Fold each of these.
Amino acid sequence: MGITACCTYITLAIAAVSALLAYYNWNIETFVEFSKTFDSIPINTSPETKVANSWKEIIQYPQKHHRFDRIAVGVNGNVDIILKGSKLLSLLDPSSNSSGRPSDDHESLKTIEDLKSTFAYHHSKGAGGERYMENKEDFRKVLEAATKVQNAEYYIGGNAALMAQKLATIIHDDGKVTVGVPVGPKLKPLLHPMLKVSSTSLVDNDEYHMILEYGKGESWAGKVAPIASRFIFSHDVSNSQMLAFEPFIQSLSHFNPDLIVISGFHLLESQEMTYWRKRIGEIADLILPLSHDVPIHVELASMANEQCITQIANQIFHLVDSIGLNEQELWLICKAGGGPHCSSHLSGPPSIPVANDIIEWMLKKYSSSPRSRLTRIHFHTLPYHVIATHAASRWRNQASSIAAGTRIACTQACDDDNIAQHPDKVNLRVQGKIRLSVSDSASQEFDPSHPTMTWQKSSISFFFSPVLICKKPLKTVGLGDAISASGLLYSGFA
């Protein structure tokens, strides 16, 4: 090519660029800034970023005529004192951290020694737990010590109060939430201002629960915690007897809810068998007449008594539409009810196919009666969540529901609503081909760009979503309650 021709091409190229800049009214500085945006586009986006980016598309409110606008939540609430478990136990007894000290999972805490060994057991397993301290004087001593622990914090406690608080903060502008729990002078100012509190729920003295937190890799009594979690204990009379249930039911006719959420059954196991058997029957009688057009969700929490959970399952599950639970409750129900794969001790989150089989068994078992209302189970564990519904049920928008639960599990634990920009804070454990059941070879390939997976098995629809696990969680208390609350808010009911 000659020099003249070459110069001609260069001139034409410059003219073309100049014309483009003139057309868009850009100067050179603007053009340079625009070109930099291409440099910011990642060539190899991480799987964690892909999952976080997918939430915007997946998570949508249900159609207005299917969504929940008036939600009533009861019946357990208290003040939580949150502190490092190691600090409290060291203050009570400096030798508590000695290697080789006994660790055992007591169903209830009869002494401070029981508290030490039960905390050590749950810490070593990386498992959350909740127990009742029987001796009022022992609990008073521990409460007094807790007030001396540096950086101890006071928060809303109790599954129902936490779910109501979360719903109040995330519900759409024209939504309303009422809470029916024991509300004393310390708890009242902690509640969201939009929460409606019935006058029948007000009490003179608050109930206190201790939340002993520990981090992943933290050493205690010669054992290392495999994951971050917490151990909860209390000497709580009002909530352990579910005394707020009758006032809560009475308040429903005034509030006229389109969704009822109930929690607190797990606290009954701290009572004598004669009491909880009678109380579960009384509560069942109060639930039975409630309208089938208003769905009822029961949120479970940590239990150890197989007889008590069996009574709850047999008398309550068929009276409600939805159940929320984690791996500990799922495993206990499975063992108590003779379900599959749960003959051995649970050590960490169950595999996906094992959990799916147990959820399927549970939904079929407790919805088999023609009178049963149960059509939905929301299961949440550290690396993933699963919702199962009867395919012909009235539940809608469950793909959004399951994704909303996994999103809040991540963003609340990390205290970061923009995880897509900070993928180094989280870890995605789900990858590759996912086996759906132990009993057959069905599987699906996991795609982080489209992380919510759905499938149907016989008459049950499954919805699966992975969790972006926070590497350094800032707060674990109330995470399960936030997950179920978010999943319900994004659910529809026809």
Amino acid sequence: MYVEGIRDLMDLLIKHPFLPPAEKDSNTKLIQTKAVDRFFPVYEQALAQSGGGYLVGGQLSKADVQVFEVVLMVEEKLPSILSSFPQLQAFQSRMRNVPAIQKFLQPGSQRKPQPDDNYVKTVREVLRF
């Protein structure tokens, strides 16, 4: 349920770098609105009710990793977005401390950075769009 629910938000985030400049502001606002009004309150409530610090029970699941990823991506665009979501803040902190995730988030890891202009240009050339 949680994993399927983030697809909408993830789609907005993934397409953002490839939008025309005139559409980027409205897409950023849409990301913020959907995160704050629709998705984050659901995750906040689930975390509060689970009692185990994770979305589903007391152990790490695929849902946790995927929610962590999408929230991380939103935070990179909108750094203060979690200010009204203490459960999500604590969740993100816990997830950052999982050894494998901590290693993955370190500079020089296999984690891909946010797309820059050069990346967008290359993708456009390769995919011819």
Amino acid sequence: MSNDPQACVVDDFDDNIGVPAKASNVSRQTSQCESEYSTTLNGTTTANIGTAATNLSSAAPKLSSGRTGFGRSISWFNSRANGSQRNIGYDDENGKSEFFLLLLFQSVGDSGAFLGGCILIVLVWSIICAWGSQWLHELADSNPGGAAERWVEDIENCKNALSIVGTLFVFTLVFRFNACYDRWWESRIFWGDIISKSIELGTMNRNWITDGDLADRMSRFIVVFSYASKAILRGKSLNEDGEEGPALVKRGLLTQEELDDMHDNPCWQPHYCIQMIREILVEAHSVPGGKGLKFDESNKVHGQLFRCFDNTIKDLNLLIGCCIRVRASGLPASYDAIVMMSFFAFFAIAAVVWGVGVGWMAPIIIFTSSLVIMFLIVMGTKLVDPFGHDKVDIPLEAFCDTIESQIYAIDQRSKKGTVSRFARFSNPKGKGWKCESRSSRRTISRNLTAR
């Protein structure tokens, strides 16, 4: 555990989720984005967006010193122009194409020594039992009715007892695996809600805050909130290697001063972003005459806007708190102890019983079954902390990219004004729409038949 008095630790993990070493200075000058990807939708590339980004890029050095909101907006436009997401993909878009055994072995990762050691122990024991059962059968054949024959009969009669032990073992195994999976699934639900609430907050921001600079700042910190959440759930800060702090500065989502201030504050960085969003909301309400919001103080809706914003911000605060709880709580050590005791007890008895019944087939059966069971145990262990870099962990990078892309898309269509224009004037053919759904046709048909 670090001795840094500013380091923030989330309970038992001894991981500093606070202040690492100082980040190096990142240039504030906006540069043209060298896009590595080209989005293609239904066979049509988004070349026109890339062209617009290039045109804006040429004007960026004149407009931005890294401190103005407009300059940061241009930088963000360059970085997101060819990366906006219009389709909903699978969480594991790359892993789904891999052979399942390769994915399985990659998932167990550094647990190979533990897995191999446990299997080796029960395998060696099963070989000893198979050899001992062969020797016992030879004694029984050489001395019919003797002690060796009675031992063989007694061991063969233990099959029902072994079934009971196996049932208890499977119950403990499934109970532990379900507890591990519930943690993973709960985390996935929380991040799905974070995405939804972030998009909701971004939409309210552009619909109801009329001050352009304040709206730009709120959009930026909604995006930064997601990356700060990813960092804290991995026991890091935005400034640390492997996290997005310097990249966010380069893309214009943060200034170096803002990043340094987040670094210097002994706080959980997602809550820093939430506080910043609240401060921006207060600034919007503080504009004289209520002009910072779409509805001024004379409108009854004006007072309700703060409540709508605040409820969504509270939800984001609650969701990241729930994720921190999942990450910090871990799994009770007794679960692991009970499962491993049951594992060795079951295979210790099974090797003796199966050795007498099937002879040298017992080591083969025990090796295969213990391998499958150990994979389940190790896979469950990997699910305990769902926020890491393992194959089975939830894809936090993809979720953060989704939030950034969607907030950017909201900003762009708001600035373009087409949605507002369609909301006021759009009316196809100057008349109402005609329902062509099957259910409506069936309803009309039944009504005509009744008449």
